[in-house]
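#structure-requests
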Amino acid sequence: MHVIIESDCTKALRLVRNLDCVYYNFSLQNPNPNFTSRPPKKPSSLLELWDFFISRLNLSVSRAGTYSFSMTDHRNTNGQTANAAASASGSIYSINLENFSKRLKALYSHWNENKSELWGSSDVIAVATPPPSEDLRYLKSSALNIWLLGYEFPETIMVFTRKQIHFLCSQKKASLLDVVKKSAKEAVGVDVVMHVKAKTDDGTALMDAIFQSIRAQYKGSGDAPLFGYIAREEPEGKLLETWAEKLKSSNFQLSDVTNGLSDLFALKDKEEHMNVKKAAYLSYNVMNNIVVPRLETTIDEEKKITHATLMDETEKAIVNPQLAKVKLKPENVDICYPPIFQSGGEFDLRPSAASNEENLYYDSASVILCAVGARYNSYCSNIARTFLIDPTPLQSKAYEVLLKAHDAAIGMLKPGNRTSAVYQAALSIVEKEAPDLVPNLTKSAGTGIGLEFRESGLNLNAKNERMVKAGMVFNVSLGFQNLQCESKNPKNRNFSLLLADTVIVGEQNTEVVTGKTSKAVKDVAYSFNEDDEEEDKYVKGETNGSEPFMSKTVLRSDNHEISKEELRRQHQAELARQKNEETARRLAGGPGAGDNRTGSKTSTDLIAYKNVNDLPPPRDFMIQIDQKNEAVLLPIYGSMVPFHVATIRTVSSQQDTNRNCFIRIIFNVPGTPFSSHDPLKNQGAIYLKEVSFRSKDPRHISEVVQQIKTLRRHVVARESEKAERATLVTQEKLQLAGNRFKPIRLPELWIRPVFGGRGRKIPGTLEAHVNGFRYSTTRADERVDVMYGNIKHAFFQPAEKEMITLLHFHLHNHIMVGNKKTKDVQFYVEVMDVVQTLGGAKRSAYDPDEIEEEQRERDRKNKINMDFQNFVNRVNDLWGQPQFSGLDLEFDQPLRELGFHGVPYKASAFIVPTSSCLVELIENPFLVVTLSEIEIVNLERVGLGQKNFDMTIVFKDFKRDVLRIDSIPSTSLDGIKEWLDTTDLKYYESRLNLNWRQILKTITDDPQSFIENGGWEFLNLEASDSDSEDEEESDQGYEPSDIEPESESEDDDSDSASLVESEDEEEEDSEEESEEEKGKTWEELEREASNADREKGNESDSEEDRRRRKMKAFGKSRAPSSSAIPKRSKLRR
């Protein structure tokens, strides 16, 4: 059937409207009692109807511009990509013959081994698949189709015997199934017989032919064969109803094979596990990226939204994975059930629950249940979470118990355990922690999951004694139903709790494939009402227990709200306690005292010539350079004495006034700085420290000096590279992608550090292979391999305000890039050319050429950023595969909004935090600090009116030098404090720079004393300030009340002025004072003298009286002069 896209859209949509009967005329009663049927929402416009039509019919576009219908409805199709040529019909569908053979063998093997126990002793197995339906249902007949053939074949009857497999179906399906004949014969030795039914035929004659063939096979056995069928599936459609009637009237004995099929589907292979993992990946990403943000926004902004609307939005994200930031093909995914959202006291923990039209209820003490199930290639996954809004103690306690019970149930899913033990483990936790909640616990801890949402034979209840085996997949779902709390509000009086995860049982460990959606209390319990709680307490105290009322005029400060700074201070105090305990435990294991600096390595013995005969024949008694043996031959006392060039420290030449040239050679000898000679070795040897030669040929002298320097430079570089390579860790060999997959490529990249050599630098290509990256240029010797296992951190930094877009890898172990040893490798592209206009004329801002050039630069930058982003996304998908799960790799992106300027090395740079590091990736040398390796951070030179401060990072490895970042603007102080606090890093503040090398040496020398003295608390500036303030307050005596506040503030201002002033300012001040003294009257001078006399007082006066008089005199002297105002002001008494 084809729908031609007409030129007139209205005609095409008219054709779509004529197909309403296909999608809207279906029964509202679902034959499967486990799930409710839900009609799709009626489209309100032609475009919505067209989109609905395209998505629901699973159409595929051909080159001729037609849409071809899929064989089945979207909800029941597998959606697998065709991987082999189809039959002669030219259909887009194909059957994976390798899977078909493997699973057909498994079917017959399982049937033979468990014939009496699970297959009802059946001799024949008949499976009839009903017509397609829009209803959400799970049938074992459909599951067998998908499991065995890769697709669901509606209105098809399959009959399995020992010698034959019969298919009764239409001509189109028969042509698709024709390819399995050879595979079936090779796999289990059976013949495939096709019975093609015409459209007008009811199939009765074909059914009789099948029965006749079966009777012929068992003719000599005496008894009629036992016919196995799926007893729980009611026949649907004319064909299946006719088949059921013929089967009952054929005098065959019937038996149920449901248990056999359930057990057959229970053990899943790697391909099935991958389908489950992809389904789970979609489920938890929908929960993390769609459901949780939507709930948080709705509650935070106090919006109204119905449960049904949330369900529709979530379902839309599942069938369109891009909305949840998931790169899965939409035609391969579907929902397991309509997403469930419940709140407001009405809860149903069954999968058949529906989201009603009530608004989401999120007042205090409310509970919200969310459940999401996604399918990939018809394999199911499930996840459910409970969110608590300002929970009561009962709700918090119940959730904590449920969380422990859920984890205990998952922990019991190990090969060899019985399924009843899984539920018993959860029940034991509830009986121990909260026995009063046992009646409310669900009677099952979940079921098996796969092609069916609930695999009936794998119920995790107290009665099922089935063994757990490696390869099984479970939906572990546990909850408390109908709990009651004390409340007058019916919407939060009754509540339920639910947790569900999809779990794969492995040989060694159990994998929770939906575990990336947190269920920890701190992540599901929300507190939006802290201020209201404080107000309630305050009002209740005022009204003495009467009904509380809320006043709209209450200020935030009246509620005694804890400031942000106070919360940060409390958190830092807790971090200090934890950090001191952690440091004490680490130091108790072994102090490891000593400095981290090791002595310089001794060089190996240098041999220029093994014996005298190897010396080159002397030509003239002149200095000779032997390039081959790396030696310098010097004429000494009539003989040519060889010296290896590595023994020469420096060589220089100079010329005197008599035109004589001198060459001076200084050797490395023991005792000189940076000497590699061991003074204890060859103690009786005589060393030549220096030698000079004179010559009248300046050109020869200059050539000798140049040759020695060049040879020495070459030898030193070679030995240095050799020493660095000797310390390298042996890397695994790169496995090229080859035929496994096409490597992920990113071309035209530059590398830092650059390759050596004097040739022109050329860009290269970065490729992602099986176990690592390879960067290579067109030159054969310019190639670098970076193994995934050696990558510690990977960063992607797009160009925003920078000139480059880059990928940066920080490694565990050093590698060689050219002849450089490095732990940081960077690949980058310049997003725009650095061009400087040489012309002096200024160009207009409205110059069309200028505007066009800027637009080209923006387009180029956006394209480069997008290319890098696509590369990063594809590599992240590669790293997300199970074989890389132990590496925990993912590209991290710097958070520019948290960045700050500072000087980590010699030049100022913009330093940016990431989720796990502190980095600076633009300027060389690069800065990469792993946050988990930081012990504490000390902010130095803070306060005292400083414009800048320094940051010192102390690492957990005390043998490692601290990292100093200097000259950070003080405007960044609060942001850095907030970032350090949110990342749980303990920081201290000090007014001076500290000698950290000595501090760390003291700690490592005597760790016990460090621990006993409070650990890092000696850096706590606030504690020391509070102690000093207490001492100052105790020393202060009586302060007079008649001193004007202006005098104190003016004095403070004068004290806070700069302590260093220029000589000109001092001279100006002295001139002003002299002018004031000249302008004073006799009356003023007499008053000052009397004040001075009273200030001195008698010798018998107490110190307190003297200070009081001094303060009084100080206050009078600060009074305005008579020349300023006509009447003298009086001091207040």
